[in-house]
From TrEMBL:
Main location: cytoplasm
The protein's name in its UniProt record: Flagellar protein FliT
This protein's UniProt keywords: Bacterial flagellum biogenesis, Cell projection, Chaperone, Cilium, Cytoplasm, Flagellum
Pfam families: FliT
GO biological process: bacterial-type flagellum organization
Top-level taxon of origin: Bacteria
InterPro entries: FliT (IPR008622)
Lineage: Bacteria, Pseudomonadati, Pseudomonadota, Gammaproteobacteria, Oceanospirillales
Compartments reported by the entry: Cytoplasm, Cytosol
Chaperone is among the record's keywords: yes
Amino acid sequence: MQEPSRHDATTPQEALISFYEGLLARSTRMLTQAREEDWDALIEEESQYVIDVERLSRIEGQDAMSQEQQARKDSLLERILEQDMEIRQRLIARRDELGQMIGTTRRQRDLHRTYHAANRR
């Protein structure tokens, strides 16, 4: 997502709203990838998401918004945060799953070593 230009929208406030809409679209893609367990694509998308949030922090608050624009921004931000929460929950579940797999692999390795050590005697 490119940093909004004052030429992309009629006003700087509209450009900011447009930026939030782009951030929501990226967040929606990330949520879909998390639901589909497409972890590689999620990591790539999340890298760009972090860059976009950094860009947003540089332009946020430069211009006052109307009540309607602020309400739209708040709505977009709420949806982004809801999606972020679900993505995080799915990532935690994946981390726990990987931790269990690592634990199982370690136990199998230890049993294998013990078994082979006992057979060598």
